[in-house]
User: Fold these one by one.
Assistant:
Number 1:
Amino acid sequence: MAKSKFEYVRLFEADDRCLPNTWIVVRVDGKGFHKFSTEHEYEKPNDIKALSLMNRAATSVMEEFKDVCLAYGQSDEYSFVFRKETQAYSRRSAKLSTNVCSLFTSAFVYYWNEYFPTGKPRYPPVFDGRTVLYPSNQNIRDYLSWRQADCHINNLYNTTFWALILKGGLTPAEAENKLKGTLSGDKNEILFSQFGVNYNTEPEMLRKGTVLVRRKVPVALPNGGIREKSQIVQEYVDIIGDEFWNTNSHLLTVT
Amino acid sequence: MAKSKFEYVRLFEADDRCLPNTWIVVRVDGKGFHKFSTEHEYEKPNDIKALSLMNRAATSVMEEFKDVCLAYGQSDEYSFVFRKETQAYSRRSAKLSTNVCSLFTSAFVYYWNEYFPTGKPRYPPVFDGRTVLYPSNQNIRDYLSWRQADCHINNLYNTTFWALILKGGLTPAEAENKLKGTLSGDKNEILFSQFGVNYNTEPEMLRKGTVLVRRKVPVALPNGGIREKSQIVQEYVDIIGDEFWNTNSHLLTVT
Amino acid sequence: MAKSKFEYVRLFEADDRCLPNTWIVVRVDGKGFHKFSTEHEYEKPNDIKALSLMNRAATSVMEEFKDVCLAYGQSDEYSFVFRKETQAYSRRSAKLSTNVCSLFTSAFVYYWNEYFPTGKPRYPPVFDGRTVLYPSNQNIRDYLSWRQADCHINNLYNTTFWALILKGGLTPAEAENKLKGTLSGDKNEILFSQFGVNYNTEPEMLRKGTVLVRRKVPVALPNGGIREKSQIVQEYVDIIGDEFWNTNSHLLTVT
Amino acid sequence: MAKSKFEYVRLFEADDRCLPNTWIVVRVDGKGFHKFSTEHEYEKPNDIKALSLMNRAATSVMEEFKDVCLAYGQSDEYSFVFRKETQAYSRRSAKLSTNVCSLFTSAFVYYWNEYFPTGKPRYPPVFDGRTVLYPSNQNIRDYLSWRQADCHINNLYNTTFWALILKGGLTPAEAENKLKGTLSGDKNEILFSQFGVNYNTEPEMLRKGTVLVRRKVPVALPNGGIREKSQIVQEYVDIIGDEFWNTNSHLLTVT
């Protein structure tokens, strides 16, 4: 059987290597998660179990891809930032997006039963993935700011929306109507005056999303000594302002 | 919080729409499945459970993507052929590869326990994905022939290799050595004379791989009548020669 | 001087090879030719000298690129059709478009004084170029039909427009106004009834544009004999209907 | 004539916009200029007329493309650096490379007779073009250093090679043989000891190539006053070291 006769078809594969010296972001995004969260009775406005599972899946990705220096997640999405100099998969765009996306999905299903009482979800969940390039440090910071600002806007809205429904007794349509055209300040006011909720004291994981970074953490040795070990940790902090980047300046410098 | 100030970063996403009127293949491929199959004690040379699970996962993909007219799987890989005219995800390359890859992976983990006695695998399995374009009917046929020829070559090798080990008592290194430089005929001869195995009567799923296509199948109605329903069926047939394509000419014509 | 220290920058060049087995069209288009034609007093509605110079420049491209099997030109544009199988410049998109575009431009300036009485144009003319892929024979025919239909529509409009001005004494604004919303039949009628012009007897080069193909033509030998030689010829024929393609079926078949 | 029926073919054009916030270089390169320079009797090792014509053509490109902040030329090539933020042609790669390449070629032919006594070249010269992206200031500097190092290496070689032939009476093969394996120091020594030539006093245009930048230059006004005007000037300076960039820091900053 002449294998070689057919092998010419390999030449139809395109070379999709990313521009060198450029930040590579792979973002995975839940597909149809409005329906998925409803069918799996996610708590509203936020389901800590579901967010924790997202963080678990993202940790698997960072364990595998050593060149992901930071990941940021919120709602049903997660962004993975590869170092500018990464040579993972020769920087081939589809290799990066499909491997990250597949591992994230796989881990999400795999660890489901550690977070949800049901053995497995009602049907296989799907995430799509994309690769985006950012040339400068400012660009990659602005990308992450974009996602965190999105988290803030959506979470403030959802918190107010569901307070109006769950505590205020409104229908979804009524709640939507009430919030139409309101600004951030208006929503803070509704939460505080109607429901006694100070939005700024809501859990930071919900307001900020989750940042995954590698930190040296002390590990106790059998002999009583201590050594440092690199570990992936979750932080719920502001990444829009300068403070995070000043105290983590190693993230933006070539190593 | 000025969301708009950061939104410019969306402009960095590239437009990756596939050339129109061209066959789109998305192939998913097990990552590190040599190790994965060993750790999960896949039977050698072929594990019917594992292949059946692959077929199950691929069926999920075809159920979701109506424009996949044919899928072909063998070993730890599966190829999905989208109709030339598909407008799924506006033909965006990364959307197609990541969605297919994520769903395949998700279903693989999800249905694991229907095929393997263990509740779940020892760690989350990963598949990568890629999108390749083929302009002509001959090209797409040659692509599929390439994969099926690969299946044949590998399966004949593996069948002989493992017979030498499991039945012949050779070490892997001895078996590898014995097969070095042999042609197909030589391997057939070893199987027959040494182990009484006629390779041509081995199960077709192993020798040919699995073809998934949609067929109209009769379904019994409650009133005793019968109606036709489109269903995804598995076939273990030659797709290199003309016969399959002559009897399935609808696959290559624009619908 | 360490050359090697800087040579890494070559890795930033992207691989832009065109999909194999696909028609490659390079189209060059005059940049700012409305102004250019005015400044060089092109005759209206058509300047035979200018069109002939376009044909001369296109012939230079076909002489250089043996894999261009057909070229089609009209107004200030020219399309060059490379055989599906061409390996010219390894099918690199930018190499093809810039080489064709540069040679076309170069020849246009070079041969200017063979068509225009002035030694050279008032300033250097510019053409842009683009590479477009077409997978099927129908697609490449439809591409050429698109350009020839464009030629027809524009030329009928321009012929009527300039008749109204040059023979009818209208201002451009009046002529434009009179033609607003008219169909082909209306314009034919205006030409015939007002100016005695039967559009269908206008020169075919103007109505159809110019097709360049290679033909075997007989050449007289010194000894009185005759031999055939491949030559690039201009034809002003319909390429939308089937007739041209039936009598030139070699153009669409792999050679 | 149904134009719309064919217009779908426009959808086959790919979107090739360059990554934002990234330096864009378009480099044009003489095609077959070894032959071209021989047929037009370019002086060896350098023809000042030819280099001046290259500079003239490049100046035309910079006059047209205001977003080219710097151009660098040597031998038969020229690189045009577009500002990182340029929106020229919406940053479409093929538009940029073909327009620059066409204008450069056009001007080269157009101005030929201002530099060469013959009215026009013996045949139309051709330049190819390419677009390359560089994300950081260091990358774009390294790109330019790469080209200037190339200029130095080639010019030192050619100067010595042609001295051996024109003054030393060697054949080209003998000269080539003599230079095989020599380092820069060796060539400097040959030039000095054999031909009394101090390479470092050779004209800087030959040793450094030509840098085109925009400078404010004083212009005398009719009333006796003076005003500043932006003008494209030629400089033959080192662009590998820091000095040029320190005194021209505006080139690398966003304007």
Note: The first strand of chain A starts at residue 23 and ends at 30.
Number 2:
Amino acid sequence: MKFNDVLENLTNYEAGKPIELVVREFGVKEKDVLKLASNENPMGTSKKVQKALKKAAAHAHLYPDDSMFELKDALSSKYKIKPENIIIGSGSDQVIEFALHAKTNSKNAILVAGTTFAMYEIYAKHTGAKIYKTQSKQHDLDEFSKIYKEKKDEISVIFLCIPNNPLGECLDRKDVYKFIQSIDKDVLVIIDGAYNEFATFKDSKKEIKPKDLLDKFSNVLYLGTFSKIYGLGGMRIGYGIASEQIIKALSKLRAPFNVTTPSLVAALEVLKDEKFVEDTLKNNLKEMKKYEKFAKKNGLEFIPSYTNFITFLFKKQDSSEICDKLLRQGIILRNLKGYGMNAIRITIGLPKDNQRVLKALKELL
Amino acid sequence: MKFNDVLENLTNYEAGKPIELVVREFGVKEKDVLKLASNENPMGTSKKVQKALKKAAAHAHLYPDDSMFELKDALSSKYKIKPENIIIGSGSDQVIEFALHAKTNSKNAILVAGTTFAMYEIYAKHTGAKIYKTQSKQHDLDEFSKIYKEKKDEISVIFLCIPNNPLGECLDRKDVYKFIQSIDKDVLVIIDGAYNEFATFKDSKKEIKPKDLLDKFSNVLYLGTFSKIYGLGGMRIGYGIASEQIIKALSKLRAPFNVTTPSLVAALEVLKDEKFVEDTLKNNLKEMKKYEKFAKKNGLEFIPSYTNFITFLFKKQDSSEICDKLLRQGIILRNLKGYGMNAIRITIGLPKDNQRVLKALKELL
């Protein structure tokens, strides 16, 4: 059977190995598996969310409220914007998909950093669009500007991942705003703020406020997620914030019931759990320092991180070998070989988790 | 901002009104709202599923096992097929989306029954494809054949909804097989079996066996869902079964983590709850007869149904008016005016629910 041409250029996203797989493949006991590969929240699921999910268990047979009225209302209050400026996705991933299906096609292109979230490229390829990347792996706005000017006729979407996944670096807000000002109003600039809460906690110059974006620009889409700071990676829920015109266009591509009933319940509940968020931020910043100290002490290069993970760059050792050896001990980290880097991304865990990782890593250096 | 041309022809799917909306808009107390509009399972959520979901509540922060190993394994056993013949979607809706993005584009077309599941058309339009519909609202295979022959150069996907939603009629298996045999192997025939369990229980001639399809045809995609007989409408999970070649192509369009962790848990659990399924089928068939009897007694036309709903066709009354009046009493049914019919689709409920609906309806005739 023949399929559409675009399928020929598609590859699947390689996700972090799930715990279940390590149990199956390496016979490690489930309780001994430590997964610090997917930037999940090491504090676990908020207790308040757990309670709400248990209560919601009896309503799994009912379709979700597709208006998502309550969650949009809560997000409006949080960000001081209108519900009409919000779209909810099955993860912010899905909002990326909507945006690219709305703007890109085989005749235009996207512009992204040299090494950034893989789904930008994958979804763009679904539409047949071309991908332009900066030569520098990390975000370099001068290079973004240069390529943009050269390929102005083609570029219809620009992604800025602030802070950047999987590297961890973060642009300053003022530079981002200045850059957006230089971009044509018909080009959609997507600010992926999946980890922005972590950056903001470390350095207020990194904070991107969706309301600011709405007030200043008609062509910006801000992405937020419940998968990271809010600890709902398993629930697949995130959101996009933009002008009403953009939200209306994206909504045309949103299938009904794209988010599950328990996901809506969980997201609504975790927004109320401020202590959970605060504890997560504090643990992250404190524990991150241990990794930095370890790297310095052992002569490892690392990228100063504004996220809940840190990326170690290897010279002597091979990142694939290290990841493989750790995997057999039940420690799952993210090898960045697939991104063309001899590097490992490690999610910051709880104190005992980090101790275990650093001890195991030390033995392999 | 300009968007891709296809967006101009898109409209959103109108879902059944959620309970929350009736509570908000008409001030009906939540406990008094009766929703028989979305073909949800009136038996509620399986007790076994509820227990499993409560247990899973503590793991909402962990990304799902994207290999979906366990669920594919369970479905393989159920249908006596290989895991490689299965793709899991966020509802079978999403598998429809994958299939259309894989096969259709602005240069080809789909063929569907005059009145059938609206998402076929909506997703096809996302790709810019043309839509051919039979003149008869219900499935008429002669008409399908006629149009197929006339538009052979264009048609790349054919949908058969067996039984049909939102009308309820059902083709016989032998006629379906004969029809597929007459179709070119490069055309994808999609058999939507969302309600097939109900049809099979009523009349074994209607049973479509995915294994038969795999053995006989290389160009068929069977769709199943956990939203109906399995009572997991809120969990957004369904599946597609086809040749490995088709599954591989569709998998390229599947985003990672398209199904939530609790949805995988729930689906796996409900497959084990045979009693829940049996009770659902028995209640449905028994209660359906009350609606048929009511229709005959009151001179209402109806379509003999092989599903968990029944469609009443009105002559004297206006379906919109009736639905509106019932809504104010807290009864939500599905008005089919949007499908160009003066008709109402009613999900078969529990005995007390059906009694309430028929009593209220009687007063409006």
Note: DSSP finds 14 helices and 13 strands in chain A.
